[in-house]
Amino acid sequence: MSDPNEILKGLYDETLVGNAPRVLELTEEGLAAGMEPQSLLFEALIPSLEEVGARFERGDFFVPEMLIAGRAMAGAMERLRPLLAETGVETVGTFLMGTVKGDVHDIGKNLVNIMLEGAGFEVIDLGVQVAPEKFIAAIEEHKPDIVGFSAFLTTTMPMFKANMNALEKAGLRDQVIVMVGGAPVTQEYADAVGADGYAADASACVKRAKDLIEQKRAKVPA
């Protein structure tokens, strides 16, 4: 298969069903046929993952389907990432991400990371069970544009406020945009803890992150 349209359709379809070996194979075929890495990403991989998100919202897909599709895309992203960097695809911004202390859930976080990377963000993932002091140390080291706190359990959501307090105490609150998310999190809760942004799913997170960065940069005098 070397027809670009066939490769793009194959990439879309195989990502949708989470066929990781085939997705990687088609990525290689596309590159060998001289296709641009951006084309594979923006015309097949990201639209496919967005469709996965839409099916999840409709109740047609569940977490396992989202996870295997995300993993399939992650394999392709590993191959494309250095090529995208070489072609000078501009980094939208740096996003520091972690699941809060006491919480070991990372499926949603990992999907968000893949979507963010695909949209041009540099993602630094601190993993799960991330204590406030670890977030602070990473912010000081990497100086991200956005820090994301993820929580899957209602019992760990109060860690958002603990993290916000740690940011204030370290004098870093004004230096980063704070986004929160996770299954039980709502816009109201995000507002209550003083976060700058909230997103209900991975694709919404990418849009909101881009908007928040644009707003922040518009405020900063050149």
Automatic annotation (TrEMBL):
| Gene3D superfamilies found in the cross-reference section | Cobalamin-binding domain, Methionine synthase domain
Pfam families reported in the protein's UniProt record:
B12-binding, B12-binding_2
Q: Which GO terms describe its cellular component?
A: cytosol
- Domain of life, per the record? Bacteria
Q: What is a biological process (GO) this protein takes part in? A: tetrahydrofolate metabolic process
Q: Which InterPro entries match?
A: Cbl-bd_cap, Cobalamin-bd, Cobalamin-bd_sf, Met_Synthase/Corrinoid, Meth_synthase_dom
B12-binding domain residues: 92-222
Q: Which GO terms describe its molecular function?
A: cobalamin binding; metal ion binding; methionine synthase activity
Question: What keywords tag this UniProt record?
Answer: Cobalt, Metal-binding
- Pinpoint the B12-binding N-terminal domain residues: 1-92
Q: Which PANTHER family does the UniProt record give?
A: METHIONINE SYNTHASE
Q: Which family does it belong to?
A: Belongs to the methylamine corrinoid protein family.
Name of the molecule in the record: Cobalamin-binding protein
Native source organism of the sequence: Nocardioides flavescens
